[in-house]
Amino acid sequence: MNPKLIKNAEWIVAILLSVTVLFLLVVRTANAGALWRDEAATLQLAQMPTVSDIAANFQHEAFPLPFPMLVRSYITLFGASDASVRWFGFTVGVAVLAIAWFNSRTRGESGPLLFPALFCLNATFLIWGTSLRGYGLGCLLLLLTLGLAVAAVRQPTPTNALPAIIASVASVQIMVNALPLIAAIAAAAFVVFVVKRQFRCATVVCGCAALCALSFLPYLQAYLAADWTVVLKYPTTFSSLWDKLHLAFEGQSHLMGIFWYAAVPLIIFGAIWRVWTLRGQKPPADVHLLFFLISVAGLSIFSYYAFLRILSYATRPWYYLPLLCTIAGTIDLIGGVLAHVLWIRIARLAFVIAALVLLPFTLSNSIRQRLSNIDLVAHKLEAEASPNDLIVLNPWNFAPSFYRYYHGLTPWITVPTMSEYRIHRYDLMKSKTMELDPLAEVRSAIRQRLLSGHRVWIVGGAQPRDENMPRLGPAPNPYFGWAGYMNFWSMEIGSFLSAHAGAGEVVLGPDPGVSENENVPLVVAQGWQD
């Protein structure tokens, strides 16, 4: 087949793929709706009165200080409305695609193919990479670091090395999760330079890694001092982490998972085969580059797994965005090197065309799904709740988004009561777990309102506790440790209401067009019975 014809086809497919991604980003931006609690907390952290307040609280919202400061700068310029925030996410998504084009063009490719097919057509990226969190921007900087590192490995000059160092430092300043992946890229570059006997370059790589680590030191104390993270820790196993990684690969589409599981092993095995066939040839530029990229892929998986095991959180699909970005970026770069073999080049093009034709149709529902209905709940309460009623948020972690959207006169509390509603204060929750009766204030407030003939509105509903479920008592529980208290408290309030006010009336039920992460029912209870 004519190579020029193939190159033209690659141009056309790359452009069509990028246009499709841009269209999907626009659809997602228009349909994402209200900020869900994690986003609202990020925004409200950035809106705190002073920079000192942000510096004192940034560790409660997962990302290092530069990210909320960047958000603060953005909303100062463009406002803090939902629309403005959603366009921030759109801009990040477009920038990720632009970096993919930059990486592709700098290595002489027609345009990015495998990266946008595997990463940008994935609902995990379209939903969570464009939300008001640091994952999208962190992925952008990781992808840029990877592309610049490839240039530095191929031609280790100061002109190539300096941008890679700057990008790597920037990535760990935005996202903690970038640390293990930058370490993997640095380790792979170090090994390649040692194999090439370019020991001075290997030393520079070590210096770069040390600089990244040193740049993170100002935040390290805040994270290490956060003993409250114990309430977020769960036993993690390879199986549990793999299950969540599988969900991230699929992005709510089994077909996307099939594309991932086909592309990654085939490209990696193809790279290993190419290294074997090119052994002994001089100059072995492709051999060293492929060895670097294979090492990045393998070390990224290993280092990220170790990072998640140490973190020991109950992970969600968006936790894996940085890993997906690194692997997809690596696969795209390997595909470009392997494209020197004609049949591989044709197979790559056919694979991407299949993805372009099939995958967008699997995204129709997921990218139109609202992230939260808490704004609708808030508007309902503003219209129907009286100033003498009581609103109870069950559990407490709905508070950041409710704080943003509710502007009525009815007083509201959380289960259990908290002194801070703008951000997620798990340190306050930890203190509550250690109390003998952390729900006493909530029960008293509910009882008082119901006895006086007023209504109690439960945001989040109230499911009674299973009678066979043991009482946890003050933390740490001898059997469950620090885990399970939020669910237990929610059911305790459900049992209390069921005993004294009946089942209550469901005013708003779960909406199928809203993400399960914050699809909040609204229940109202009235009357008191002993």
Oligomer: single chain
Tally of helical segments: 21
Quick one: biggest sheet?
Answer: 5 strands, mixed
Instruction: Give the domain tally.
Output: 2
- What is the rounded Rg? 26 Å
Q: Which shape, going by the Cα principal axes?
A: elongated
- As a percent range, the share of helical residues equals 55-70%
Average pLDDT taken over every residue: 91
What is the SS-derived class?
Answer: mainly alpha
Q: Provide the succession of SSEs.
A: HHHHHHHHHHHHHHHHHEHEHHEHEE
Strand tally: 5
**Percent in strands:** under 5%
* Low-confidence residue ranges: none
Strand order, sheet with most strands:
2-1-3-5-4
First and last CA, distance: 84 Å
Can you characterise this structure?
The chain is mainly alpha-helical. It folds into two domains: 357 residues, no CATH class; 153 residues, no CATH class. It contains 21 helices and five strands. The protein has a five-stranded mixed beta sheet. α1 runs antiparallel to α5, α8 packs parallel to α10 and α12 crosses α13. The longest helix is centred in the first third of the chain and has 29 residues. It is elongated.
Give a brief outline of the structure.
By secondary structure, this protein is mainly α.
Topology:
Elements (H helix, E strand, L loop, with lengths): L2 H29 L5 H10 L4 H7 L8 H13 L3 H25 L7 H7 L2 H7 L5 H20 L3 H17 L3 H18 L3 H26 L13 H13 L3 H25 L6 H27 L9 H18 L3 H21 L11 H11 L5 E4 L5 H7 L6 E3 L11 H8 L6 H12 L3 E5 L25 H17 L3 E4 L13 E5 L4
Parallel strand pairs: 1-2, 1-3
Antiparallel strand pairs: 3-5, 4-5
Helix pairs in contact: 1-5, 1-16, 2-4, 2-18, 5-8, 6-15, 8-9, 8-10, 8-15, 9-11, 10-11, 10-14, 12-13, 13-14, 13-15, 14-15, 17-18, 20-21
